[in-house]
Amino acid sequence: QVQLVQSGAEVKKPGASVRVSCKASGYTFTVYYIHWVRQAPGQGPEWMGWINPNSGGTNYAQKFQGRVTITRDTSITTAYMELRTLTSDDTAMYYCARGASGSYYRTFEYWGQGTLVTVSS
Amino acid sequence: DIQMTQSPSSLSASVGDRVTITCRASQDITNSLAWYQHKPGKAPKLLLYAASRLESGFPSRFSGSGSGTEYTLTISSLQPEDFATYYCQQYYSTLLTFGGGTKVEIK
């Protein structure tokens, strides 16, 4: 079965960076896009970007351009999201999600369990 | 950016009730709409895509409809396991955006 297992909770100070990992299993990793979505307390989800695990190509929401990097390591079927220059506004649950197949690759068919990132001085 | 506006933001309903949630886009998204169910402490689940296609594993009491800028999610007979927050998401534009959510609570 498809599984996305994320790394554990993080506490960071303002100005620091965080890297969250997402280990995929149960399917061919290079076939499906991986997205990153975050949800701050009391708010709706917010899409951050995607990676094509086959090519390594990425697309980021303009809001995060220059501050986020999504990468992957196909040898261990893992995607990563690094967010830099953290502020308290980045406190949120961060999810990786696998895109659906074909033309629906920008819907989120499977989700990781979430990684809570807390930014606090 | 395409803004997605959901209404209501919350509702109280009883088991067996028919529930309708609306999602309005700030421009035509030509049925490029998905709905997700999110329960506390769990990952969201894809419920519907292409506005009306039900994801496998969900019962037929869930349905979606709409076109252009206005879409609805209907639960024909609310069951105890349906109490959750529901989000719409458009995938028409390069920037993917979500609605603010509708929390369905027990009356």
Folded structure, characterized:
The complex is a heterodimer of chains A (121) and B (107). Chain A is mostly beta strands. Chain A has strands at 3-6, 10-12, 18-25, 34-39, 46-51, 58-60, 68-73, 78-83, 92-99, 108-111, 115-119. Chain A has no helices and 11 strands. In chain A, the strands form 2 sheets. In chain A, strands 2, 4, 5, 6, 9, 10 and 11 form a 7-stranded mixed beta sheet that branches. Chain A has a 4-stranded antiparallel beta sheet with strand order 1-3-8-7, with no helix packed on it. In chain A, a hairpin with a 6-residue loop joins strand 4 and strand 5. The termini of chain A are far apart. Chain B is built from no helices and 11 strands. In chain B, strands 2, 4, 5, 6, 9, 10 and 11 form a 7-stranded mixed beta sheet that branches. Chain B has a 4-stranded antiparallel beta sheet with strand order 1-3-8-7, with no helix packed on it. The radius of gyration of chain B is 13 Å and the shape is globular. Classes of the chains: A mainly beta (121), B mainly beta (107). The A-B interface holds A 35, 43-47, 59, 61-62, 95, 100, 104, 106-109, 111-114 and B 34, 36, 43-46, 49-50, 55, 87, 89, 91, 94-101.
